[in-house]
Amino acid sequence: MQTIDEALKKLQKSKFRSGFHLSEKERLYVREKGMEVIREHCREIIKKRLAPANSLNDGKQTPMKGHPVFRAQHACACCCRGCLNKWYNVPLNRELTNAQIEKIVNLLTAWIENEMKNNGK
What pLDDT score was predicted for residue 59? Predict the structure, then answer.
Protein backbone atom coordinates (compact mmCIF):
# COMPACT_ATOMS: atom_id res chain seq x y z
CA MET A 1 0.00 0.00 0.00
CA GLN A 2 1.59 3.25 -1.12
CA THR A 3 1.28 6.59 0.63
CA ILE A 4 -0.06 9.73 -1.04
CA ASP A 5 3.49 11.10 -1.33
CA GLU A 6 4.68 7.86 -2.95
CA ALA A 7 1.76 7.93 -5.41
CA LEU A 8 2.43 11.57 -6.32
CA LYS A 9 6.14 10.83 -6.89
CA LYS A 10 5.28 7.86 -9.09
CA LEU A 11 2.83 9.97 -11.11
CA GLN A 12 5.53 12.62 -11.66
CA LYS A 13 7.59 10.01 -13.51
CA SER A 14 4.86 9.74 -16.15
CA LYS A 15 5.28 12.29 -18.93
CA PHE A 16 1.52 12.28 -19.52
CA ARG A 17 0.41 12.53 -15.87
CA SER A 18 3.03 15.11 -14.92
CA GLY A 19 1.88 17.40 -17.73
CA PHE A 20 -1.35 18.32 -15.98
CA HIS A 21 -1.53 21.56 -14.01
CA LEU A 22 -4.37 23.72 -12.77
CA SER A 23 -5.30 26.61 -15.04
CA GLU A 24 -5.43 30.13 -13.62
CA LYS A 25 -9.24 29.95 -13.74
CA GLU A 26 -9.19 26.68 -11.76
CA ARG A 27 -6.77 28.18 -9.21
CA LEU A 28 -9.10 31.11 -8.72
CA TYR A 29 -12.01 28.71 -8.25
CA VAL A 30 -10.09 26.81 -5.55
CA ARG A 31 -9.19 30.07 -3.78
CA GLU A 32 -12.80 31.28 -3.91
CA LYS A 33 -14.39 28.02 -2.73
CA GLY A 34 -11.71 26.82 -0.30
CA MET A 35 -10.34 23.30 0.08
CA GLU A 36 -13.23 21.95 2.17
CA VAL A 37 -15.71 22.74 -0.62
CA ILE A 38 -13.30 21.33 -3.22
CA ARG A 39 -12.94 18.16 -1.12
CA GLU A 40 -16.73 17.77 -1.04
CA HIS A 41 -16.99 18.35 -4.80
CA CYS A 42 -14.30 15.72 -5.22
CA ARG A 43 -16.20 13.20 -3.11
CA GLU A 44 -19.43 13.84 -5.04
CA ILE A 45 -17.71 13.50 -8.42
CA ILE A 46 -15.98 10.25 -7.45
CA LYS A 47 -19.18 8.75 -6.02
CA LYS A 48 -21.15 9.66 -9.13
CA ARG A 49 -18.62 8.94 -11.88
CA LEU A 50 -16.18 6.31 -10.58
CA ALA A 51 -17.78 4.44 -7.69
CA PRO A 52 -20.36 2.40 -9.63
CA ALA A 53 -19.26 -1.10 -10.62
CA ASN A 54 -19.90 -0.49 -14.31
CA SER A 55 -19.96 2.73 -16.27
CA LEU A 56 -21.23 2.94 -19.80
CA ASN A 57 -18.74 5.70 -20.49
CA ASP A 58 -15.71 4.25 -18.73
CA GLY A 59 -12.63 5.93 -20.10
CA LYS A 60 -14.65 8.92 -21.28
CA GLN A 61 -16.53 10.06 -18.18
CA THR A 62 -14.01 12.64 -16.98
CA PRO A 63 -13.63 15.91 -18.90
CA MET A 64 -10.09 17.22 -19.34
CA LYS A 65 -10.97 20.63 -17.88
CA GLY A 66 -13.78 22.64 -16.36
CA HIS A 67 -13.24 21.83 -12.68
CA PRO A 68 -10.05 21.43 -10.63
CA VAL A 69 -11.12 17.91 -9.65
CA PHE A 70 -11.31 16.83 -13.31
CA ARG A 71 -7.76 18.05 -13.89
CA ALA A 72 -6.60 16.30 -10.70
CA GLN A 73 -8.27 13.05 -11.76
CA HIS A 74 -6.23 12.96 -14.96
CA ALA A 75 -3.02 13.99 -13.20
CA CYS A 76 -3.51 11.25 -10.59
CA ALA A 77 -4.75 8.47 -12.89
CA CYS A 78 -8.15 8.49 -11.17
CA CYS A 79 -10.10 9.46 -14.28
CA CYS A 80 -11.64 6.07 -15.06
CA ARG A 81 -11.81 2.54 -13.71
CA GLY A 82 -9.24 1.37 -16.23
CA CYS A 83 -6.66 3.83 -14.91
CA LEU A 84 -7.55 3.03 -11.30
CA ASN A 85 -6.95 -0.62 -12.08
CA LYS A 86 -3.69 -0.03 -13.95
CA TRP A 87 -2.14 2.39 -11.45
CA TYR A 88 -3.63 1.26 -8.13
CA ASN A 89 -4.89 -2.30 -8.72
CA VAL A 90 -8.48 -1.29 -7.98
CA PRO A 91 -10.65 -4.17 -9.24
CA LEU A 92 -12.84 -3.58 -12.27
CA ASN A 93 -16.58 -4.28 -12.24
CA ARG A 94 -16.86 -3.88 -8.49
CA GLU A 95 -18.36 -0.87 -6.72
CA LEU A 96 -15.79 1.24 -4.91
CA THR A 97 -15.88 0.98 -1.13
CA ASN A 98 -16.14 4.06 1.06
CA ALA A 99 -12.50 3.52 2.05
CA GLN A 100 -11.42 3.47 -1.61
CA ILE A 101 -13.44 6.62 -2.31
CA GLU A 102 -11.77 8.42 0.60
CA LYS A 103 -8.29 7.35 -0.55
CA ILE A 104 -9.02 8.75 -4.01
CA VAL A 105 -10.42 11.97 -2.51
CA ASN A 106 -7.31 12.33 -0.32
CA LEU A 107 -4.97 11.81 -3.27
CA LEU A 108 -6.81 14.27 -5.51
CA THR A 109 -7.03 16.95 -2.85
CA ALA A 110 -3.33 16.50 -2.03
CA TRP A 111 -2.52 17.02 -5.71
CA ILE A 112 -4.68 20.16 -5.83
CA GLU A 113 -3.08 21.50 -2.64
CA ASN A 114 0.39 20.89 -4.10
CA GLU A 115 -0.61 22.69 -7.28
CA MET A 116 -1.83 25.67 -5.27
CA LYS A 117 1.41 25.79 -3.22
CA ASN A 118 3.75 25.25 -6.15
CA ASN A 119 1.89 27.48 -8.59
CA GLY A 120 1.73 24.57 -11.06
CA LYS A 121 5.46 23.97 -11.22
Answer: 65
